[in-house]
């Protein structure tokens, strides 16, 4: 069953210079799955496993020049020798045994060109987002209040917590959830019942830079979030806007439907609040500046940028980092007795200790799954946000409907497009001129549908995404 919906598409032109151009960097291959983190644990073995995309030079301690010198990348644009990594997702059976959940389609790294004049990452630039020790959503409303946010919702701590997303994917039933809509891991029963196409983990990186430091002691303090997480104004002292970076990774949680156990991140987190990610630029700075200036399509497709050299998905699978000798016997894929590296499962809500299973257990930890589930808020599957999947792996940035403009009830009507008027509105200090374009769409499953009809529906799906992206995003 395909989903049916009627939507009002809003195409907006900002009078303040806000951009809607972007590109999605597909990194289909996995360069490594190992306990290595050259930002947090340089030169040594990391405490927990990461799934790594990008440059084949990835290792315990790596420089910008080494990333650039690699003869391969697991991303499709060969000029991108950056390193991208996040904790892997595992399934833990009731006896404590863990296995890696299959990672569908590698990673999508979104390069969003927000701000009046976004800058490229300079050589040596690195940063991380999220906190692997976090185990609760401290004092913030659930779900997020309507934007624009103010007060306690725009502190850097609040924005960091809101920069994590767990998107339940169900392409054939219900409208899709919005990016960064849910900031925690849904429980197993919810995933089984609602998320037939898996779980998309999302992470937004801060895009406001202090303009001088390539890194900082905590790998965060040289960066800050704009006041609406993705868009908005930068705080004082962080006036340089760099290109905005967002990660998406889809995990096939449905492979474990009906199986007793729980999902847990490699850092021992079953709540999702401790999701995090790291980035080291591997772009030539001048080339990235040219891409920012030139790759201004609103489609997000790398094929629409004439600068990019694009390799096949098959070739991205061939790029592998060298496994450190100390990790030769690691079994992060499983089946294994517990998580890779002996990491404890810690439910919180207290701040985690990240100790191994051989160290003194925290009062908030459980060495194996006991049948209990983390205490997390409940959010319904339906949302007020609209999203259109941007490629076959289900990637997509969401567009928030303008207050007072909501989708009409589902109805089996023909596809129609009509400009019904224009208006203006103000958001976060920016004045927008809006063309309101009414688009009525229905997609239902028909047993005798021809391949040509299915192809037509697929094209309309992507055309809507290109029209809407970025104009009222987040």
TrEMBL record:
<feature type="signal peptide">
    <location>
        <begin position="1"/>
        <end position="21"/>
    </location>
</feature>
<keyword id="KW-0732">Signal</keyword>
<feature type="domain" description="DUF1996">
    <location>
        <begin position="37"/>
        <end position="283"/>
    </location>
</feature>
<dbReference type="InterPro" id="IPR018535">
    <property type="entry name" value="DUF1996"/>
</dbReference>
<dbReference type="Pfam" id="PF09362">
    <property type="entry name" value="DUF1996"/>
</dbReference>
<protein>
    <recommendedName>
        <fullName>DUF1996 domain-containing protein</fullName>
    </recommendedName>
</protein>
């Amino acid at each position: 069953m395909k989903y049916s919906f009627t939507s009002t598409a809003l195409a907006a032109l900002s009078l303040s210079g806000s951009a809607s151009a972007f590109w999605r960097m597909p990194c289909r291959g996995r360069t490594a799955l190992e306990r290595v983190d050259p930002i947090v644990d340089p030169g040594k073995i990391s405490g927990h496993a990461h799934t790594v995309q990008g440059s084949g030079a990835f290792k315990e301690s790596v420089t910008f020049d080494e990333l650039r010198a690699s003869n391969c990348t697991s991303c499709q644009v060969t000029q991108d020798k950056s390193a991208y990594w996040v904790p892997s997702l595992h399934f833990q059976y009731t006896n404590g045994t863990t296995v890696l959940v299959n990672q569908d389609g590698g990673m999508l790294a979104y390069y969003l060109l927000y701000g009046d004049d976004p800058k490229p990452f300079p050589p040596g630039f690195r940063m991380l987002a999220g906190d692997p020790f976090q185990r609760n959503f401290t004092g913030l409303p659930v779900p997020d209040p309507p934007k624009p946010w103010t007060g306690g919702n725009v502190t850097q701590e609040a924005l960091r917590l809101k920069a994590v997303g767990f998107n339940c994917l169900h392409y054939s039933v219900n409208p899709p959830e919005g990016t960064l809509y849910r900031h925690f891991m849904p429980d197993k029963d919810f995933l089984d019942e609602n998320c037939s196409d898996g779980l998309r983990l999302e992470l937004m990186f801060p895009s406001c830079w202090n303009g001088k430091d390539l890194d900082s002691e905590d790998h965060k303090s040289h960066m800050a979030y704009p006041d609406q997480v993705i868009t908005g104004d930068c705080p004082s002292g962080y006036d340089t806007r760099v290109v905005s970076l967002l990660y998406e990774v889809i995990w096939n949680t449905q492979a474990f439907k009906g199986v007793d156990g729980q999902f847990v991140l490699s850092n021992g987190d079953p709540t999702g609040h401790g999701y995090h990610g790291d980035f080291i630029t591997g772009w030539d700075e001048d080339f990235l500046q040219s891409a920012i200036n030139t790759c201004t399509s609103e489609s997000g497709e790398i094929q629409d940028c004439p600068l990019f050299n694009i390799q096949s998905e098959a070739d991205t699978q061939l790029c592998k980092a060298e496994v450190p000798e100390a990790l030769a016997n690691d079994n992060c894929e499983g089946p294994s007795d517990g998580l890779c590296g002996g990491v404890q499962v810690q439910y919180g809500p207290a701040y985690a200790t990240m100790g191994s299973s051989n160290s003194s257990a925290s009062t908030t930890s459980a060495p194996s799954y006991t049948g209990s589930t983390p205490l997390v808020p409940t959010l319904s599957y339906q949302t007020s946000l609209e999203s259109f999947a941007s490629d076959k792996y289900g990637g997509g940035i969401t567009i928030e409907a303008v207050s007072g403009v909501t989708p009409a009830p589902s109805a089996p009507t023909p596809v129609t497009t009509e400009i019904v008027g224009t208006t203006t509105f103000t958001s976060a200090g920016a004045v927008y001129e809006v063309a309101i374009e009414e688009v009525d769409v229905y997609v239902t499953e028909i047993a005798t549908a021809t391949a040509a009809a299915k192809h037509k529906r697929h094209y309309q799906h992507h055309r809507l995404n290109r029209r809407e992206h970025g104009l009222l995003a987040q």
